[in-house]
Design goal:
binds magnesium ion, tRNA processing, two-stranded antiparallel sheet, nucleotide-binding, ATP-binding, about 10% strand, binds adenosine-5'-triphosphate, about 400 residues, about 50% helix
């Protein structure tokens, strides 16, 4: 409010716009607050003590306050989209209407002024009430201008449980192949939000029915698997790695294929590594109780994360039990083992080689599985027998 007031007192218009307006009206929690103004970026910067140029070419200045940062964006129009993504250039304008016109969906094209009045030039309020997702203006033109909007539409279906207005849906079906022009990173962001939405089933069905999935990385052959993913009943998936894990568990790929798939999606190495561990652990947990070795290898966080996923398969997760089992493991990492590689070298007269790590590994598993006490003496005794067999 103080930001809006400052802008207004300086003679400019200023409004809340975008997702925060939509989510407030839907009684949902909000995250980022976007402000739109008739002031040009240089004029915005003059009015506030602390600002950061985050996207000044696109008219966005970040205003920094003690508590928070806010994106303040100059009213703008976007013109001549030549490659089905991002506008060639943006033009700053002084009219709110021009700014709202370039927004994707009617429910995202609402503005709220300082007095709390909702400015609704495209019947977004009615669409909010009727739970309808409708493109602003001619949907064919809008998706042709920027193909990412199709993925945004599908993720809003999944997040909000709204229905695609028929012509909007038709236009998506018509232009789905333009998604091939959009960078994987941007598709990834929307796809993850789609997987994590409360209305995942509807979102995934729209993804398949519109055939947009064909133009998503690596999914061309997996329409049926996406529907199998959609069939999993349960609450919104809480984390990104759980979402990928459930998806991958339905795609039934080898670990190598998973790695390639997630690379195509430009997922981070860390995320990929975690998912490749979680998928087989989930398959395992669906038919077995946890054992020490699986828990140990997976680690506490991933094991809890996998346990939570049981509910999507009609199994009851028992997180407290996993915490306890994990806590009671004889050790939690190789660092906890009472015998180190150096000790092995000192005691056994073999030349340095692979025997060290294979012995450590055997000891590690014996200790974790509770067959061997974690003290120097028992470990050395075991190593001796182990090596006698190994080295002959
Ligand atoms: P979220 O709650 O996920 O942030 P959002 O609707 O706020 O959803 P943002 O990406 O933060 O999404 O965009 C803010 C606003 O900018 C949108 O509400 C919409 O008005 C507009 N917008 C964003 N991306 C596009 C786009 N590709 N085409 C047209 N308008 C867009
Ligand atoms: Mg937003």
């Amino acid at each position: 409010m103080p930001i809006l007031r400052t802008l207004q007192e300086a003679g400019y218009e200023a409004y809340f716009v975008g997702g925060s307006v939509r989510d407030i009206l839907l009684n949902k929690p909000i995250h980022d607050v976007d402000i739109a103004t008739s002031a040009f970026p240089a004029e915005v910067k003059e009015l506030f003590h602390r600002t950061i140029d985050v996207g000044i070419d696109h008219g966005t200045v970040m205003v920094v306050t003690k508590e928070e940062t806010y994106e303040v964006t100059t009213f703008r129009t976007e013109s001549t989209y030549q490659d089905y993504r991002r506008p060639d250039h943006v033009e700053f304008v002084r009219s709110l209407k021009e700014d709202l016109k370039r927004r994707d969906f009617t429910i995202n094209a609402l503005a709220v002024g300082i007095d709390g009045e909702v400015i609704d030039l495209f019947d977004g309020l009615a669409d909010l009430r009727n739970k309808i997702l409708r493109a602003v203006g001619n949907p064919h033109e809008r998706f042709h201008e920027d193909a990412l909007r199709m993925m945004r539409a599908l993720r809003f279906v999944s997040q909000l449980g709204f229905t695609l207005e028929p012509q909007t849906f038709e236009a998506i079906q018509e232009y789905h192949s333009l998604l091939a022009k959009i960078s994987v990173e941007r598709i990834n962001v929307e796809f993850v939000k789609l997987m994590m939405g409360s209305f995942r089933e509807a979102g995934l069905h729209s993804l398949v029915e519109s055939e947009c999935y064909i133009y998503c990385p690596g999914l061309r052959e997996y329409g049926e698997s996406l529907l199998a993913f959609a069939d999993l009943k349960g609450p919104a998936i809480p984390t990104e790695r759980q979402a990928w894990t459930l998806l991958m568990s339905r795609l039934k790929m080898t670990p190598e294929a998973m790695r390639g798939f997630m690379k195509e999606w430009k997922c981070s190495n860390q995320l990929t590594k975690e998912v490749i561990q979680m998928v087989p652990a989930l398959e395992f947990r669906l038919v077995h109780e946890w054992d020490n070795w699986s828990l140990y290898q997976l680690g506490r966080e991933l094991a809890l994360s996998v346990e939570y996923l049981l509910q999507y398969f009609d199994h009851e997760p028992n997180l407290a039990k996993v915490r306890l089992l994990y806590q009671n493991l004889p050790m939690h990492s190789l660092k906890d083992m009472a015998l180190k590689g150096n000790d092995l070298m000192a005691h056994f007269d073999y030349p340095r080689g692979a025997w060290i790590s294979s012995t450590l590994h055997a000891l590690e598993q014996e200790v974790v599985e509770g067959r061997l006490k974690n003290n120097n003496e028992s470990l050395l005794a075991f190593a001796k027998t182990f090596l006698e067999e190994e080295m002959t």
